[in-house]
Amino acid sequence: MRAITGIDLTRIVDPKSNVMEQLTGDPFVLFDCLVAILQPQLDERELTPEQFGEALDEESGDKASMALIEAIIDFFPEGKRMLLRRALTKVLTAAERRQLATLDKALQAVE
Measuring CA to CA, which residue among 67, 30, 29, 35 is closest to residue 51? Predict the structure, then answer.
């Protein structure tokens, strides 16, 4: 994964890294990770990464993203898994708040 995307998923537990934020905050980083993981299946089906991306609707992309993040978390021992799940919850909550604030500002601008 690191050689293809530049993301070292094992550093997700390192408090000095921003891997969790990259995965949850940048859809392009997450998409690159998904493509790296799924490349053998894409090759088998003769699909390019672009075709794969076009075939994903928003809900499927969200589900694939969460499945990847949960699989990464499940890779670690139980103690670290609990910490990572808490961190993920905080990151997702913060992202949701930012999205709601952005939507609220957009609605206020329209009014």
Answer: 35
pTM of the model: 0.66
Q: Distance (Å, rounded) from C-alpha 24 to C-alpha 105?
A: 22
Is the CB of residue 36 less than 8 Å from the CB of residue 49? no
Q: Which tokens sit at 54? A: 């076009």
pLDDT tens-digit series, residues 60-79: 888 888 888 889 889 889 98
Residue 3 and residue 44: Cα distance in Å, rounded?
21
CB < 8 Å & 24+ apart, contacts of 75-81: 75/9, 76/13, 80/13
Q: Which 3 state secondary structure label does DSSP give 77? A: coil
CA distance 106 to 111: 9
CA distance 98 to 78: 30
Determine which helix (DSSP H) or strand (DSSP E) holds 8, and give its type and residue range: none
